[in-house]
């Protein structure tokens, strides 16, 4: 269903979907400067589902934005699918992103003026790629919206909107899908549906998903959890369970206090 | 609610700048022209001077006032519409529709009042300068002193406040109520304006060729027809969009964006249509008038030249005013789209693609507005030319029209693109989060 179409120049996916080397990002100047990321180095394999967790202000959103090319790190290297992201113009970054990266945001970020089907194929249109309507329909059917193609986002529930966003992220067949609090605005049932879709994208179709969340339940759907505190990596947990993640999070807070 | 209104003005003065500017310029224009009435009403003024002053105050002041009314109203409508999210939040936190109305109308009136008061000084200077031009052209005796009195003040404050309050009231009612009824009311007003416009244009034939007020009827008519066409323009635009096949992602997006936003575009189209219609109509009528005067050889050449200068000055003021209003409402409408642009960028649009989309949208808008405006202008020009001369169309050729179209296109495209570029400077992630 989410088959990987080989593009002509494509050498196939690299084994390492995402690599960050000593990535730092500071906001503000001088006295009021805040270090959001402090030399983060990490590597994520292809076909993995990783959750990024940490207390508020730990830098998890900054991490995601730098890794996804939405923000430029002050220093360090970001590599997506074996290609280094160089800090060029926004247009260059956009072109880099749209051939490799898909997004799912907490606030969906669908365009109100477009229908569900049009929103889904928008990234393809913008990238000048061939729009395969049948495939878009397949993807939308797979996320359970096959009968809503002509609806507008404001006619859908939050959960449905987020599923459109997932379909939009999947349709370009990106190497990495970044999800920023994808369930943050959803009720538990819709959230579960969204998380299962992300999980399916990884397990069945071999995509790589990186999800920022503050919710231990959401994190428990991932293969592993990265913990972040004060802009630094503070541990990694494989095969996470809700309780283990919650417990670890609680102690992250302690560590920070001790560290100060 | 009034307290809330005042607080919201104090907290975010920037968002009211467009309204303030509209009210300020509108009131300044109205008071400048209407102060001529006050000047004419003074004791001991010779009848020729008094008549010249009150005629030009009634003719230009009259249609100028009508123009200002609609220009201020359309700018305010654009501004209130942008706040639907904020109004929704207030509604969710327990504000009744009546309270919302009081708040929005209160804000609009307060800002318009401030604008109108600020306009008094400039209007006095403008009126004095205008009187000077009249005196230089020999239309008014040198001995006449300038006076700024109750008539200027009342009309300036009254019209500006009425336009502001009326537009705010209608816009907030639209925002707090369903869409259904609004369509019918709009159609009704559109036809009222069109009928009134046709009546006014037809009334031109009731004047004699040398009547000083001859230009008033077609000018009123062109303005009213512009308003009617602007109200109907969304429908016309929809028809155009259905036939339009634009290739490329930007064109594709532009057509879809416009189709969804047609109803909101009426405000911008109003300014654009008014600009095209009023400048085309008045400039052509002035040119026809000038030629007719010259041909009749009634006035000495120096006086004729002065008179022409005077008339073009007056028309110029009006044209520049509408142009500023056009920039004003386009700027406000484009600034508000930061979030939408952010969404496009996050979906993979490069800044260039966003700008091309805006460019394509604006081009389609410009074509619609210019065509409608030209129709309204022709409706005024043809009767005027028929009465003033023996021909149907002016002999001036397409030059003036082409110049007006060029200015309209440059101003709309320029404002949209420059504003969009500025909006795009905010990182996409921030832009999306701003209004959320």
Q: What spatial form of chain A do the alpha-carbon principal axes imply?
A: globular
Q: Please tell me what the overall shape of chain B is.
A: globular
Tell me the name of the CATH homologous superfamily of chain A: P-loop containing nucleotide triphosphate hydrolases
Report helical residue fraction of chain B: over 70%
Q: Number of folding domains of chain A?
A: 1
Distance between the termini of chain B: 24 Å
The assigned CATH architecture of chain A is 3-Layer(aba) Sandwich
Helix content of chain A: 25-40%
Largest sheet of chain B: none
What is the helix tally of chain A?
Answer: 8
Number of strands of chain A: 10
Oligomer, anyone? heterodimer
Layout of strands and helices, then pairs:
The complex is a heterodimer of chains A (260) and B (436).
Chain A: E1 16-27, E2 34-45, E3 49-53, H1 60-67, E4 75-80, E5 83-84, H2 90-100, E6 101-105, H3 116-126, H4 133-142, H5 158-171, E7 176-180, H6 188-203, E8 208-212, H7 216-219, E9 224-229, E10 232-238, H8 242-259
Parallel strand pairs in A: 3-8, 3-9, 6-7, 7-8
Antiparallel strand pairs in A: 1-2, 1-4, 4-5, 9-10
Helix pairs in contact in A: 3-5, 4-5, 5-6
Chain B: H1 2-11, H2 17-40, H3 47-81, H4 84-92, H5 97-136, H6 150-176, H7 180-203, H8 216-243, H9 248-261, H10 266-296, H11 301-335, H12 338-346, H13 351-388, H14 399-423, H15 428-434
Description:
The complex is a heterodimer of chains A (260) and B (436). Chain A is of the alpha/beta class and 260 residues long. Chain A has one domain (44-72, 88-259): P-loop containing nucleotide triphosphate hydrolases (Rossmann fold), CATH 3.40.50. Chain A is built from eight helices and ten strands. In chain A, helix 5 (158-171) packs parallel to helix 6. The longest helix of chain A has 18 residues, at 242-259. Mean pLDDT of chain A is 86; it is low at 1-10 and 256-260. Chain B has two domains: 1-177, no CATH class; 179-436, no CATH class. Chain B has 15 helices and no strands. The mean pLDDT of chain B is 84. The A-B interface holds A 65, 70-71, 90-91, 94-95, 97-98, 103, 105, 107, 109-114, 118-119, 122-123, 125-128, 168, 172 and B 249, 252-253, 256-257, 259-261, 340, 342-353, 427-429, 432-433, 436.
């Amino acid at each position: 269903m989410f088959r990987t179409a080989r593009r002509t120049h494509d050498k196939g996916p690299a084994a390492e979907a995402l690599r960050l080397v000593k990535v730092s990002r500071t906001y503000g100047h001088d006295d009021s400067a805040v270090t959001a990321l402090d030399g983060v180095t990490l590597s994520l394999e292809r076909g993995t589902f990783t959750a990024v967790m940490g207390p508020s202000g730990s830098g998890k959103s900054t991490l995601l934005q730098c890794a996804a090319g939405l923000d430029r790190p002050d220093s360090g290297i970001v590599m997506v699918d074996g290609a280094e992201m160089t800090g060029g113009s926004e247009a260059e970054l956009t072109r880099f992103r749209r051939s490799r990266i898909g997004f799912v945001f907490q606030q969906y970020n669908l365009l109100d003026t477009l229908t569900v089907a049009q929103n889904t194929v928008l990234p393809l249109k913008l990238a000048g790629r061939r729009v395969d309507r049948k495939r878009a329909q397949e993807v939308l059917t797979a996320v359970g919206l096959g009968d809503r193609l002509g609806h507008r986002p404001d006619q859908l529930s939050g959960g449905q909107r987020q599923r459109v966003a997932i379909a939009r992220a999947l349709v370009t067949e990106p190497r990495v899908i970044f999800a920023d609090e994808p369930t943050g605005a959803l009720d538990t049932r819709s959230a579960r549906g969204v998380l299962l879709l992300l999980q399916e994208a990884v397990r069945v179709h071999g995509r790589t998903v990186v999800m920022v969340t503050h919710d231990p339940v959401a994190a428990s759907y991932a293969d592993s959890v990265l913990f972040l505190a004060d802009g630094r990596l503070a541990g990694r947990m494989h095969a996470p369970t809700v309780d283990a993640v919650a417990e670890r999070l609680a102690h992250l807070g302690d560590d920070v206090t001790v560290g100060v | 609610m009034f307290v809330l209104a005042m607080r919201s003005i104090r907290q975010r003065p920037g968002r009211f700048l467009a309204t303030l500017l509209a009210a300020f310029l509108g009131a300044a224009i109205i008071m400048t022209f209407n102060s001529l009435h006050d000047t004419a009403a003074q004791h001991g003024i010779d009848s020729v001077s008094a008549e010249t002053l009150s005629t030009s105050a009634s003719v230009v002041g009259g249609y100028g006032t009508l123009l200002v009314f609609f220009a201020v109203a359309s700018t305010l409508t654009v501004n209130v519409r942008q706040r639907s999210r904020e109004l929704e939040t207030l509604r969710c936190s327990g504000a009744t529709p009546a309270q919302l109305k009081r708040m929005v109308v209160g804000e609009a009136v307060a800002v318009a009042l401030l604008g109108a008061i600020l306009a008094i000084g400039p209007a006095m200077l403008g009126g004095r300068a205008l009187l000077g031009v009249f005196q230089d052209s020999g239309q008014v005796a040198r001995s006449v002193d300038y006076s700024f009195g109750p008539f200027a003040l009342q009309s300036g404050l009254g019209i500006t406040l009425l336009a502001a309050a009326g537009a705010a009231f209608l816009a907030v009612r639209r925002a707090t109520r369903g869409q259904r009824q609004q369509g019918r009311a709009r159609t009704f007003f559109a036809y009222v304006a069109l009928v009134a416009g046709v009546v006014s244009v037809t009334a031109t034939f009731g004047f004699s060729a040398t009547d000083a007020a001859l230009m008033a009827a077609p000018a009123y008519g062109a303005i009213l027809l512009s308003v009617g066409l602007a109200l109907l323009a969304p429908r016309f635009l929809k028809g155009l969009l259905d036939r339009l096949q634009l290739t490329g992602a930007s064109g594709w997006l532009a057509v879809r964006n416009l189709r969804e936003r047609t109803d909101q575009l009426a405000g911008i189209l109003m300014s654009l249509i008014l600009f095209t219609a009023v400048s085309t109509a008045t400039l052509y009528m002035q040119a026809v008038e000038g030629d007719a005067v010259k041909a009749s050889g009634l006035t000495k050449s120096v006086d004729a030249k002065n008179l022409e200068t005077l008339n073009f000055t007056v028309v110029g003021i009006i044209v520049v005013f509408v142009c500023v209003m056009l920039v004003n409402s386009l700027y406000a409408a484009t600034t508000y789209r930061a979030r939408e642009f952010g969404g496009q960028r996050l979906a993979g649009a490069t800044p260039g693609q966003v700008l091309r989309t805006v460019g394509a949208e604006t081009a389609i808008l410009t074509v619609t507005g210019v065509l409608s405006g030209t129709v309204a202008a022709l409706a005024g020009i043809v009767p005027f030319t028929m009465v003033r001369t023996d021909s149907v169309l002016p002999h001036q050729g397409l030059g003036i029209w082409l110049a007006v179209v060029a200015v309209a296109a440059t101003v709309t495209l320029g404002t949209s693109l420059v504003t969009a570029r500025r909006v795009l400077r905010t990182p996409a992630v921030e832009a999306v989060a701003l209004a959320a």
